[in-house]
Amino acid sequence: MGFLSDTLARVKPSPTIAMTTxxxxxxxxxxxxIGLSAGEPDFDTPEHIxxxxxxxxxxxxxxxxxxxxxxxxxxxxxxxxxxxxxxxxAPSQISVGTGGKQILFNALMATLNPGDEVIIPAPxxxxxxxxxxxxxxxxxxxxxxxxxxxxxxxxxxxxxxTPRTKWLILNSPSNPSGAGYGRDQMRxxxxxxxxxxxxxxxxxxxxxxxxxxxxxxxxxxxxxxxLKTRVLTMNGVSKAYAMTGWRIGYGAGPEPLIKxxxxxxxxxxxxxxSISQYAxxxxxxxxxxxxxxxxxxxxRRRDLVVEGLNACPGIDCPTPQGAFYVYPSIKGLLGKISAxxxxxxxxxxxxxxxLEETGVAVVFGAAFGLSPHFRISYATSDEQLTEATARIRxxxxxxx
Length: 400
Description:
Its cofactor is pyridoxal 5'-phosphate. InterPro entries: Aminotransferase_I/II_large (IPR004839), AspAT/PAT-like (IPR050596), NHTrfase_class1_PyrdxlP-BS (IPR004838), PyrdxlP-dep_Trfase (IPR015424), PyrdxlP-dep_Trfase_major (IPR015421), PyrdxlP-dep_Trfase_small (IPR015422). One of its GO terms (molecular function) is pyridoxal phosphate binding. Homodimer. It is a single chain. The protein is α/β, with parallel strands linked by helices and 400 residues long. The protein has two domains: 146 residues, Alpha-Beta Complex (Aspartate Aminotransferase, domain 1), CATH 3.90.1150; 223 residues, Aspartate Aminotransferase, domain 2 (3-Layer(aba) Sandwich). It is 40% helix and 12% strand. The strands form three sheets. It has a seven-stranded mixed β-sheet with strand order 2-8-7-6-5-3-4, sandwiched between helices. It has a three-stranded antiparallel β-sheet with strand order 9-12-11. Strands 1-10 form a two-stranded parallel sheet. The termini are far apart.
C-alpha cells in the first residue's frame, strides 16, 4: 500500500512556479535573468491600504474572525458589487477566502461528485483542471484558438455540454491570453446557458479592473440576471490593488453554496488573515485612484511588448483586451534549430531554449492547454520588457 494519496497522483505541479523556480536557480548561479513568468503586479500596495493593515495590528485585530470573513468586509464586498457591477448581494451570500484560488477550490470541492464534468475553455489558468481533478470531477477542455480571439463560442460550448456537465468556468479578462468577453459575446454564452438550467457558472473576475482601450468589463450575472441563482462570481484584491501576498479573495453566490463553502473552509484553513481582511476592506472602500494609474502603466507595457514581439520572425502576438499577459503564437518557429542547437519542436522546447540561451523566462503554452504559444507577464518595468523583447528577437533571428 502506497503512502501518498492516489488523488494527488492525478495532479501536476504548477508549470508557472516551476519556470519561476528554474529562473531563480539560474539567477543564483550568476546569470542575468529576466523573469516574465510570474503573474504578479510589480507595484507596491497603495499606502492607505498598508496603513489600514498596520492600524489593525495596533488595534488588536489579531484574533480569529468569522470563518469566511468579517461582517464589515462582507458589507464592503456587497457595496463593491452594487457599485461596480449592478449586482445586489447580502452578506450571507459572500464568502471570503485566503486568495481567489481558495474560493474556486472550495466551490468545486463542495459541489463535485465523481463523474461530474467541468467545462474549461483553453487556454486556461493552470490550476483550473487540477482543482477539478482534486475535487473528483472531470475537466472537459474546449480549445479556443487564436482564430476566435481565444474566446469560447456558443457553438463550442454547446458541443461540450453533456448530461454530466455541472460547471462552466469563465475567466475574463483571461490568464493567460488577456482575452476579454465583450457584452455581446457574453450575452451569446448566457443565452445558451439559459437553455441548460442544470449548469452552473464559475466566473473568475480577478482581472476586472485591468482592461484597456475601449473594452467594457461585464460579468455573467450582470449580463443575464436570470442566471444569478447559479453563478458564483469570484474576485479579489490581489491584482487590482497589488495585494498578492495579502491573500484575500472573495466570492458571491447563492446562500446554500456559500454555506457549503464555509463548512469546508471551517475544516481546512478557517478564517483568512485578520490583518489582511482589514486591509482589503480599506482597498474596497478607500480611494480608487491607484487602479487607473496602474491600468495606464500596464496598457503602455502591453503596447510595448506586442510591438516588440510582432517584430520577431516566426512570432504572432495578438493584442489582448486586459490582464497583464500576452499569449503569442510560435507556429512560425516550429521545426527550426536555435543558435545553441535545440530543435524547437514544441512550445516547451522554445521556452526552455529561450531561458537557457537568452536568460528570458516565459511559460510554454502547453501548460495552459493550447499550443504552440507562450505566455509573457508584462508586470515588470519598461526597461526590463524592452530588453526582454530585444533578446527574444535576437533569439528568433538566430534560429535556422
